[in-house]
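Researcher: Checking consistency across runs. Here is DNA polymerase III subunit delta again:
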Amino acid sequence: MNIHKELQEELNHSIERDRISHALLFSGKCGYGTLPLALWYAGRLLCTDESEKCRNDVMSGLNPDLHFVYPVTTTDKVPRKPTSKDYISDWRDFIVQNKFADGFAWLQHIGADGKQGLINVEQSKEILKNLSLRSYAGGYKVMIIWLPETLNISASNKLLKIIEEPPQKTVIIMISEKAEELLPTILSRCQLIKVPRLSQLEVEEVLVQQFSVDPNLAEEAAAVSQGDVSLALESLLHQTESFETLFIQWVRNAFRAKKDVTALVDIYDWSQEIAAWNDREKHKQFLSYCADIFRQALVQSYGASDLVLNQIKSETFKWDGFANFIHGSNIEDILNEINEASYHIERNGNAKIIFLDMGIKMTRFIHKKEPNPAS
């Protein structure tokens, strides 16, 4: 694995010194490679003979001493009392296709789009049962709990004892995007490993080597990925041209609104057009795109044009003139508003209201003056 070399070295040293923690918490966004890193570490524990077949079996979820728990919900396939074992074949397909995908993508994969996934008390019983079994190969057993923030209270409490005192040669690896939502009693029992965002070069290499993306496209996607492979893949999936057109409409209407109240009607129409996508992930991707454009404009406005990696390319849009309106006095308000919109979209908020509210607020932020340093 060609990512997170420093973390790999630290984990290797812990194995070499025989200081293997019985419970680890890998904290970071899925797109940063938390699952690939956890699978790599599981392979180091389970594949003592360094065989390629063993490592491949671990990375594809087939090793008999590697167990998984992940959020599930009812679907047409499992209409009642679902647990992880009901979806194990789906899970293996999922991690083979994209180990950088998040919980939303997982629920889409199993046909549960629009529902909330959960790790319930029945799944905690599965964990206890699986960890009580003898190791198939006679060595370590590894349990990966993916997105443990979806554990309900009953399931969390049921796991406290085994996380603190697991059976001999048993390692529990939790992979969380929102570690702050875990019970403090669980956090205190785990060795925390913060997984940082990837470098641009690492994202490029993942796109080319694992997803067969053209190197030129990979470079462009990595430049706007914020170190997140999932964001890079989404930027390739969605048509950036449509995002650019909608961004330009938004900004122009925000400028017009100061002198022409009919611009508010256009902002309303704009918000309804975006809401009509009925695709939460595309909404989040558009918001991420907007945030990145505003950040790039700030860099431009402070005279560092050579550092601008992504900008509006339309010949009808005056990039330099737009950038002059983005500065230290309004960028925080703008980005906070976009982040707030993304937060509510993630929680199934009404997209029509969210985008209309954000669109109108921009009419204030875009005209906010930067204080004169001389005054």
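Researcher: Does this match what you'd expect to see?
Model: One thing to look at in this run: The radius of gyration is 23 Å.
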